[in-house]
Inverse folding.
């Protein structure tokens, strides 16, 4: 929704072990912690579109208020304002996940540096090989090419030993 991956308030209420009404109440009391990129209230059109996609409400059921949609940052912030035991556990797990993510980024940076150094070494080797190939291919045109390999007996001897010559 609106370019974000979100979770809705009633799903988060179940996750955190609180009533949706209490979750929304806590969010409203701490509204300064939830900027637009952390949480937003769905419009009527967004909610109708969502309902038609998932048929989330049973026939005859109606909601009084439009749901809140929380982004990843909003979910993390939400776990810090709720007081349920589940909310505390979720907050701890989020902090652990962030720590693992940070460590992974650091390892990733080291790995990228190693790959870059390896890439530079390979490029140096290729440049060296290309220089050698260029040097070999740029022999003077007036210099005859030396033949490599075996000659037949009927071929003219050019001063090189012929491996096929029979000695009497």
């Amino acid at each position: 929704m609106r370019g974000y991956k979100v979770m809705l308030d009633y799903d988060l209420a179940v996750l955190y072990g609180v009533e949706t009404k209490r979750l929304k109440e806590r969010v409203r009391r701490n509204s300064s912690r939830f900027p637009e990129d952390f949480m937003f209230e769905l419009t009527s059109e967004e909610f109708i579109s969502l309902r038609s996609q998932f048929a989330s409400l049973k026939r005859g059921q109606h909601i009084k208020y439009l749901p809140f949609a929380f982004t990843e940052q909003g979910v993390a912030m939400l776990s810090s304002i709720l007081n349920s035991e589940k909310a505390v556990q979720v907050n701890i797990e989020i902090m652990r996940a962030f720590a693992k993510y940070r460590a992974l980024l650091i390892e990733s940076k080291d790995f990228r540096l190693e790959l870059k150094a390896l890439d530079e070494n390979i490029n140096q080797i290729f440049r060296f090989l290309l220089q050698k190939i260029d040097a070999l291919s740029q022999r003077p045109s007036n210099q005859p090419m030396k033949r490599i390999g075996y000659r037949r007996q009927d071929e003219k001897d050019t001063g090189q030993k012929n491996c096929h010559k029979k000695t009497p």
Notes: The mean pLDDT is 77. DSSP finds five helices and three strands in the chain. The longest strand covers residues 39-41.
